[in-house]
Specification:
By secondary structure, this protein is of the alpha+beta class. It has helices at residues 24-37, 44-58, 70-76, 81-94, 153-156; strands at 60-61, 78-79, 99-107, 114-122, 130-131, 149-151, 160-161, 173-177, 186-190.
Length: 191
Amino acid sequence: TSLKSVNLPEGFTNFGNMSFTNSAWMDQKVANLALDITAGCTNDYDKALALHDWIVNNTAYDMTYTYYGPEGVLFHGTGVCNAYTLTYSMMLDAVGIANRTVTGTATDRYTGNSGGHAWTLVLINGSWPHADTTWDDPVPNGRERHTYFGLTDAELAKDHSWNTANYPAADGTTYTASLNVQNRSVEETTA
């Protein structure tokens, strides 16, 4: 399931002709895709993880730094962190899951290099754990991970920084996802 082969409405010869964030047509396409991806999911955790996994499995990090919006992920299968995050947010919105886009910096634990970064806080069972779809998608096109899904502030702060006063605290539950995507299991621990 993807939007790569979707028929554009009359008058749109390429994606650059439409305003992505204000397009009712695009919102409906994204909603349909998100609902298709989450079909069979019975709770917000399963839905958030299924959408996370779809993005990670269908997107490669844009090393040319061309795609900063959801159109990169949805139509080209590539984007920078902002594209991953905005796509995830749109999909979460479509299935009724509250979320917040977080901006800050991230530091590569191997190189020590830091740079601007964006990721998501997702409301699951009254808690706001972090989900970083970009950092769970190893470059280039590696195996999906759940290392950055369902983390508390303290866990994410090991290599991410942000102004915590601007966002809900992620200090309640840690969600650890099984790497076996076909048979998901959830382990909850209170921080």
